[in-house]
Amino acid sequence: DKGLNYSCGYWHRADNLDDAQTGKLDLICRKIGLKPGITVLDIGCGWGGFAKYAAETYGVKVKGITVSKEQAEYAREQCKNLEVTIELSDYRNLNEKYDRIVSIGMFEHVGWKNYRTFMKVVHRCLKDDGLFLLHTIAGNTSAKGTDPWINTYIFPNSMVPSARQVSQAAEGLFILEDLHNLGRYYDRTLMAWYENFTKNWNLVKDQYDMRFFRMWTYYLLSCAASFRTRRNQLWQIVFSKNGINRVFRSEGELFI
Hints:
Layout: H1 17-31, E1 39-43, H2 49-58, E2 61-66, H3 69-78, E3 84-88, E4 98-104, H4 115-125, E5 126-139, H5 148-153, H6 163-170, E6 175-181, H7 184-199, H8 201-204, H9 210-228, E7 232-240, E8 247-248, E9 254-255
Parallel strand pairs: 1-2, 1-4, 2-3, 4-5
Antiparallel strand pairs: 5-7, 6-7, 8-9
Helix pairs in contact: 1-2, 4-6, 7-9
């Protein structure tokens, strides 16, 4: 999409990819109650899509971190006139306090040995009355590895957590306030990516070979199948430290 968001869109009221991704970003902002003056940490900020949207739309101050130099440079350019800072940093080095913390599509790359470490870092950096939203692909059973093909060609050392693994990692640190399964929307998101990729292949085919084309189409379609058959899920989980007086409604709509 135009914001280069490469995580699941929210198609509840959308009929195209751009609207679905904007809907996802706004859903996150509303779930954690963003308003002007709030400070937000974005762990694994990607190309800066969330940071840009949250700062522009809700008037918040965002710090995004990534381990990709290319992402950091691009995100800084996209957010240059906003209250946004982008740092090239490992999440384990974080030690500042924020009102809100989000992590969108990064937890899949933490690894099961580091789940507890990740949660401890978030706990350390979240103010006592703050909220943390975790957006992650998830599996139906606990695993300590990933599909060999995905591991080799797409996401080395990636893995998706189970409910048990997330819960154990957060135990004693957070109160789980809300769990929203958006898994059925990832099929539609991946098919939109597939359509965009194949439709625009002629624009980039001089830079890649047919092996890459086959690899990328297989990746998008096989992942779409995994969500269509509900083998994989997509969760948005809202955590607090001490509990909040908020009721979450179906489809992520909330009232305070």
